[in-house]
Amino acid sequence: TRVDSRLGDCCKADDYLLSIAWCTRSIAGEEGTKKLWMFTEKIMSVAWISAIPAVFPQRLRADRPRRRLRTRVDSRLEVQVVRTVPIAGQKTGTSGLRKQTSVLLEEPNFVCNWIQSLFDCLGDELRGKTLVLGGDGRYYNKIATQTVIRMAAANAVARIIVGKDCVMSTPAVSACIIQRKAFGGVIMTASHNPGGINGDWGVKYNTQSGSPATEVLLDRVYERTLNIDQYRTLDLPSEVDTSLLGETSFDGGNFVVEVVSSTDDHANVLRDCFDFDKLKSFIARDDFSLCYDGMHAAGGVCAQAVLVGELGAAQASVINSLPLEDFGGGHPDPNLTYAKELLDIMDPSQNPSAPDLGAASDGDGDRNMILGRGFFVTPSDSLAVIADYAERAIPFFKDGVRGLARSMPTSGAVDRVADARGLNLYETPTGWKYFGNLMDAGMLSICGEESFGIGSNHIREKDGLWAVLAWLSILAYRNEDTPIGELVGVQQIVREHWAKYGRNLYLRYDYENVESEGAESMMDYLRSLEENPPTELPGGFVIKSLDEFSYVDPVDKSTAEKQGIRVLFENGSRVVVRLSGTGSAGATIRIYLEYYEVDQDRQSVDTTVAMQPLVEVALLLTKVEEFSGRDAPTVIT
């Protein structure tokens, strides 16, 4: 009866087992709980086990017996050199290499060719070093994990650290590289792209600083894939069991595979950034609730460990936290189209008890979406609000913020915060790797992209959970002296920000899987307008400038060309057009629209209504419907 009453609306087996664990604690005490825990760890090896600390006291988690596998295989490892031929389509995009999974199934050497090309370009520096291997839990990762382990051993890597169950989010990998002083990390992810046998697969490399690989290295890797004729691997006596924490050593200890918690290093870094005790007290308020959607991907694992296990949020606060190879049939992209389940939960008209804070992360846990009750926070506004409150609300910045940065298509909302606070603002191309140099040079503290990515210099990747904890910190700060029942919520904070700085209304139109030829033709057409832009535009819009964005890194002076077409209008509006490098097939055309509004009476006007005149101009100017063959975008954000 007590188990059933604890279950409530839960229907999954993992929730049922967690309920049993909770009741064991309340009935049998800590000794009975320890026995249950040891028994459960002995017979279970699935991702939800990391959530169990939520039902136990902190001291029990600290002193519980930690069962770790230690295996030694002393047989000599014989390296095999396998002949291969170049495979087309191995050029990386904005954030790694992404392909439809069917390509991998048709080309068995696809992963081997790219990994060997990477190892060849890393050269002798890789020998005797440690690599981290993580992933978002999608289909084919378990196969690729064994492939990478064998090839790492054959290429003289001394140790490879693997996330439990082949799952470790992108920010967790970055944290693990930094915490364990690894040489670099391989991340098996196609980010927010669909998974499963009919979905996408991807891989990327992060450097010793924890940041994404540079354009220079990726260009070298691509050149190597065009000429590769062999790869190195070996036959291990057996596959490495990634469901058990611990070490397996081979060849007298010359090669070690260590399976680690998917969340520990990441959680340690986050604990250094935020006041967990303060956040725990705030979450315990009777007038506050939250909902975090893990979208059946890697981000849900750490959300369970931190929000539930560390901060005491209710188990039901984190939904879809169990990573699935097809993401539960969903699209792990935290936006207004694909996160519909969370949107419905946060809509008071559909759910009268809608939580006060809603959040979601994508496939590999680096992107985030923030919601209030019936209120969507654009990523550009989220970045600006976090930057404005950072020094006051987030302990990590108690000594000050060094600088702010945004990708070029991101709205200018954060620029106004930088101006008001006397901070340097850097405008970069899309891609987190461009922020890394600025961070390493001590020039940057907080940065973000309109594509739902926000982070800071605590690691060298965008971090979905970090953004959620930042918002929790802002809410806790604003409600320090607020009586129960008078909570200052997300919407009030954002509207106060608009009143202070003005509102940058913002829309993004995505045309996905467009024929590449048509997309490139559209960009060439826009380039042709640079010397003689049109003057006859509806709605009184007058073009002030039209150019193609290029970037010179202020640290190493490296350059990035052709980073998107910018159209600036005399009234302060802006249209940006670029082709995304995150798809696995065809091209994605992204059109970004921005309009600045200082009149508080007009700041609450529905964005789609307020932006309609600019939308009409953008569609006319770009001829996107003609070039794409589409009469409407796939996604509007």
**Low-confidence runs:** 1-16, 40-67
State the secondary-structure class: alpha/beta
Strand content: 15-25%
Spatial extent as radius of gyration: 25 Å
Major sheet size, sense and barrel closure: 9 strands, mixed
Distance between the termini: 46 Å
Number of strands: 28
Shape: globular
Count of discrete alpha- or pi-helical segments spanning 4 or more residues: 21
**Helical percentage:** 25-40%
Average pLDDT: 89
Can you tell me about this structure?
- The chain is α/β, with parallel strands linked by helices and 637 residues long.
- Helix content is 36%, strand content 22%.
- It is built from 21 helices and 28 strands.
- Strands 1, 3, 4, 5, 6, 7, 8, 10 and 11 form a nine-stranded mixed sheet that branches. The chain has a six-stranded antiparallel sheet with strand order 22-25-26-27-21-28. A five-stranded mixed sheet has the order 13-12-14-15-16, with helices on both faces.
- Strand 17 (404-407), helix 14 (413-421) and strand 18 (425-428) form a beta-alpha-beta unit.
- The chain is globular.
- 50% of the residues are buried.
- Mean pLDDT is 89; it is low at 1-16 and 40-67.
List keywords for this structure.
637 residues; alpha/beta; nine-stranded mixed sheet; six-stranded antiparallel sheet; 28 strands; globular; disordered N terminus
Summarize the structure.
The chain has 637 residues and is of the alpha/beta class.
Topology overview:
Elements: H1 2-7, H2 13-43, H3 58-63, E1 69-73, E2 79-83, E3 97-100, H4 101-106, H5 110-122, E4 130-136, H6 141-154, E5 159-163, E6 167-168, H7 170-180, E7 184-188, E8 200-206, H8 215-225, E9 230-234, E10 246-250, E11 255-260, H9 264-273, H10 276-283, E12 290-293, H11 298-310, E13 318-319, H12 340-346, E14 357-361, E15 368-372, E16 375-377, H13 379-393, E17 404-407, H14 413-421, E18 425-428, H15 433-440, E19 446-449, E20 453-456, H16 464-478, H17 490-501, E21 503-514, H18 516-528, E22 543-548, E23 551-552, E24 559-560, E25 565-569, E26 574-580, E27 587-597, H19 607-610, H20 612-622, H21 624-628, E28 635-636
Helix pairs in contact: 5-6, 5-8, 7-9, 10-16, 13-14, 13-16
